[in-house]
Amino acid sequence: MEWTRTREEERLVEWTREDGYVTLRRRRRPDGEWVVRLDRLHQAPGGRDYRRERVADIEAAKALIEEWKGDADSREE
Q1: Count of H helices and E strands in the chain?
Q2: Max Cα distance, the chain (Å)
Q3: Burial, 62: exposed, middle or buried (Cβ in 10 Å; 0-12, 13-18, 19+)?
Q4: Nearest CA-CA partner of 54 in 73, 39, 32
Q5: What is the pTM (predicted TM-score) of this model?
Q6: pLDDT given at position 76
Q7: How far is CA 10 from the centre of its chain?
Q8: DSSP 4-61
Q9: Averaged in consecutive runs of 10 residues, what is the pLDDT profile of the chain (77 residues)?
Q10: How many CA atoms lie less than 13 Å away from 18 in the CB half-sphere?
Q11: What is the structure's pLDDT at 77?
Q12: What is the Cα–Cα distance from 33 to 31, expressed in whole angstroms?
């Protein structure tokens, strides 16, 4: 499925999957580390899911976003 960047601020970027059931967020913490979070609604065909992970740098955050996008899409197939 397609993902759209639906929110973009200085320290935060959020993507929403085209069906609206899943969002992913990357947020920079004040200490310079990053938090990545996935939130899938109860109503989603794959069921509810919530994940939150703290990583040290932007590259790790980007890699985690891509991994979780793939995971979220594969659960809906």
Answers
A1: 1, 5
A2: 38
A3: middle
A4: 32
A5: 0.89
A6: 63
A7: 17
A8: EEEEE-SSEEEEEETTSSEEEEEEE-TTS-EEEEEEE-TTSTT--EEEEEEESSHHHH
A9: 95 97 97 97 90 98 96 74
A10: 5
A11: 54
A12: 6
